[in-house]
């Protein structure tokens, strides 16, 4: 793992494959660290000849923490938004998009294939729509456009998200139980849920670095991001949208809405996949990303 300065903060990152190869940038989801992009998946992506880069978003892992700002109360956030007011937040999704661009700048990478999951998919969408010269291709996984007309998460999933997790410092066992229960709920219906692996991953995230309130601050950034569809219509990069048919957090309609908003986007619905990326799907998803990366781009002759 290495660190660098990006957009006024410090980001932790690592990479797989040859540094001179064409880059794939992986962007993590809400409240999760770069290790959610598992090593075997990263090596699977790198195998055809890419440099695969993953990083800790701000407020996670070894990147800059904003814990000094305190947690954002979700109920207050919703109340202010419903009243037409803009809640005070320490950063926005636009700031997080700037972080990803700054990472590429710091690594002297002019263009990359950008892949994001969940919140990371939103950041990837923003990169492709607002900084098109930097994005060779876009893969948006289990994400959404911010369209207010889309179906909401299952009620019990929302309840679990709003319930504060125990402090991992004083109650690590409770924190792990909380995380495993949520991960099990949002997992798919076809692929086996590996509780032991999930618990080990959560424990490793705690060991790497825990930013108290980081989840709530990132959730607030998502809530303020608004509807991206008008901007997504300008995307020219080859685009793949991957979504599970059993996703209880972002129902499949959210993925279909994303594909409909981006010209010539390919929609890949995976039967039984939830809001996760199980090991059983690593090769399938990696190959789909590679196919998208190899699609002709508008700037290329004959495209």
Helix-strand category: alpha/beta
**What is the number of strand segments?**
8
Mean pLDDT: 94
| Rg over alpha carbons | 18 Å
Summed up, the domain count is 1
Classify the fold: give the CATH topology. Answer: Rossmann fold
- Give the strand order, joined by hyphens, for the main sheet: 1-2-4-3-5-6-7-8
Could you tell me how far the N terminus lies from the C terminus, measured between alpha carbons in angstroms?
38 Å
Q: CATH superfamily assignment?
A: Alpha/Beta hydrolase fold, catalytic domain
Helix count, DSSP H or I runs of 4 or more residues: 11
Succession of helices and strands: EEEHEHHEHEHHHHHEHEH
Unreliable spans: none
CATH class: Alpha Beta
Major sheet size, sense and barrel closure: 8 strands, mixed
Determine the strand fraction and express it as a percent band. 15-25%
**Shape, principal axes of CA atoms:** globular
Characterise the protein shown here.
The chain is of the alpha/beta class and 303 residues long. The chain has a single domain (2-152, 211-293), classed as Alpha/Beta hydrolase fold, catalytic domain (Rossmann fold), CATH 3.40.50.1820. Helices cover 38% and strands 16% of the residues. It contains 11 helices and 8 strands. It has helices spanning 39-46, 74-82, 93-106, 119-130, 155-162, 172-186, 195-208, 214-223, 229-232, 252-261, 282-293, and strands spanning 2-6, 9-16, 22-27, 50-55, 112-117, 135-141, 239-244, 266-270. An 8-stranded mixed beta sheet has the order 1-2-4-3-5-6-7-8, with helices on both faces. Helix 10 links the parallel strand 7 (239-244) and strand 8. The relative contact order is 0.17. The mean pLDDT is 94.
